[in-house]
Amino acid sequence: MKFHNIYKLILCLAVGVFLLPSCNTDELQDLNINPQAVSEIDLNYLFSTAELSLASGGGSGDNRYIDWRTNIGLAAGAIQQVTTVGGISSNGNYYTHNEETSAAPFEFTFQDQLKNIAEVLKQTGPDGYDAGNKVNMRNAARILKAWSFARLTDFYGSVPYTEANQGIEGIFFPAYDKQSFIYPDLLRELEEAVNGMSASNPDDGFSSADMIYQGDIAKWKRFGNSLMLRLAMRVSNVDAGLANNYVSKAIAGGVFTSNDDNVWIPMAIGPSEWQDQNGISRAFFPGDGGNPNHLSKTLIDFLKGTDPASVDDDDPRLMIISGGIYNWTPADLTVLNDNPLDQIGVPPGFSKSDIDGIFGADVIMDETFSRINTLMLDDDDPYMIMNYAEVEFLQAEALERGIGSGISGSAQDHYNAGVRAAMQMYTPYDASLVVSDAEVDAYLGQYPYGSRPALEMIGEQMWVSKFFNWWEAWNDWKRTGYPALVPFTSNESNETGGQIPRRLRYPAGEVASNPNFNQQNNNNYTSRVWWDGGTE
Fold it and tell me: Of 324, 348, 371, which one is at a domain's C-terminal end?
């Protein structure tokens, strides 16, 4: 067909004006259309792919890569919950640079998550072939867009935003927008998206495409408002007016009310070892990613309570997060010690030779230190995106600091609810990971709200509740300063002068190729983004 049309065009041009009327002008117009181009795209498929992409950028590729490099490799170590000694995933432990670790969120988010979301928004926009249809899907996509862009700007500061993902429009080198512009716009987007969703809108396939809430509009609204609350609190140290306004709007609109609202992305065993499986699990699984999964001394000591010689004051999550000290191969799991009293974490920042010196022997790491519970590391375990506990802790903090209006109850009420939710949210990984109400009550009785500075207690509990979601725990720590982490300073080869990293470096390819890149003064690990008190 393609050659037939070329020949027809040549013939018509050759005969010129003498025979022009015999060449149908509609046929000539048709020659400008690529017969192999896609004229309609299945938006249900694209939306599902965009949701799947939230689970570390794995919608159309290797869903292990970004988790291994950045979530585990930098954030988990920097936030002192997992301590990896040596290898590509120890950058956060030693404050060293790895190009893949720093570049992965920038590359995967634009190329995967935001690419699919942009197409959904384009085709449901005023000029799209589905204009006016799929209203709920369009607004859900706006919520996912806000989630993705918030993560990007939290990591890097200024990023392409208004001109991002417009290559089809001829924008190959997008301009950068400042974070102080991006954040207010994300909050506006969330407000409009939540208000635009309604159960009375036609479903248009949304329920079948939505793997998070199966089209439950009330839950989507609570997700949008909860994300609004997170972003509003994130700017609270630098823009009190913006924070007050949107905290109040989020509360008035309705935020998460229980663990039933938690945002999970379902994972599956198939279709392959590299797709649709939990990226965190794949990174840690022996014989595949094989990344060391030793828990940090900072985390283990916190979970063991004020008296390490007693289990009576332990956090009930100690033996949920820790699977004990064990050997793990692709074929077998051998638990060597699951006694809570004997759990021990790896001191952050120490090299293997440092650890050997502490113990006075050549330490076998797997036979010495506590490791992540393998019940939460199955390939098809769901992937946590956002949880209800965070929403309760943010409300407690807002009340303590006098931010926003409309929050019912006391800061203590919300703190206690957050602790309960955080301790009881692990059963989607495995039905055995249960913490009873009595255990929560005993813990709250042992460590009552206000027994230490309130904001410190809130910050520490939010930190623990972000286990696996280490990049968000990192953002919380940067904003609140809690927990009071002690940086490791004796490694002379680190990139930060002994400071805990506060941002990521931009990809080398972006720095070299985009003429609009002008962030040289902020292209390091130690300068602060806008909401963290930095300059732009």
Answer: 371
